[in-house]
Amino acid sequence: MHTREEQMQAFGRLLDVLDELRQKCPWDKKQTIESLRPNTIEETFELCDAIMKGDYHEMMKEMGDVLMHTCFYAMIAREEGRYDIADVLNTESDKLIYRHPHVYHPSQVGVPHPHPLPYVPEGADAPGEFSKAETSAQVLKNWEQIKLKEKDGNKTVLSGVPASLPSLIKAYRIQDKARNVGFDWQKKEDVWTKVHEELSELEAELAREDKERSEAELGDFIFSVINAARLYHLNPENALERTNQKFISRFNYIEEHSIRIGKPLTEMSLEEMDALWNEAKTQEQ
Question: What is the mean pLDDT of residues 144-152?
Fold first, then answer.
């Protein structure tokens, strides 16, 4: 592993490369905050794919791409006279220190900055009521309450959930944030009553063939299942992706068989495909 000095040199090298590309590369020259955004989303998902595969080498490469984008945005902000990468890093450090009063004294917030920062915690000179946290759950609860007290922080409990999050992840984050301020089931087992209730309401609307109300009830049902997963400490996003990958693997097995025997999938019976599906399932065990 590298020393801290070597790590800092590597980070400086990335900044130097980006500066040179911004000056000499036609593509880099023309990029803006807006033009980079779609690429950033793609790079983030590629990192998530590598994480799901447990491929650490690929994760290393994709982390570099995500880090490069962060540095690129900071470089553009520097060109516009707003702030630079040092401000980004110092702001993040201050934020982490202030939101972990069980580790740091709030007086440790604040490194001299060359530009006014958007992040200025209020009451950073006193430990306050959040200086004790003995469990991960207490840390998260304190974290949400501290954010509400920050200047330029979240104005409401749920305002910190990005509107552009995928709906499944958003539902989990909404529920988790509500939990951190005490809005949650007292006993996790009670959630199943809600799940069954929502399923019954969905089935009733489907029987009436009311598409709009059925879609609304489907959303309620999925939301309740996500709630159950959260209460049992299961990540619904990861769970669903595992099922996606399992389906892809089994379906690919069927398709590969159809290619080998020269029989298109469209000409195979459902019984034939089911038999191959079960073969694929057996091979996984």
Answer: 62
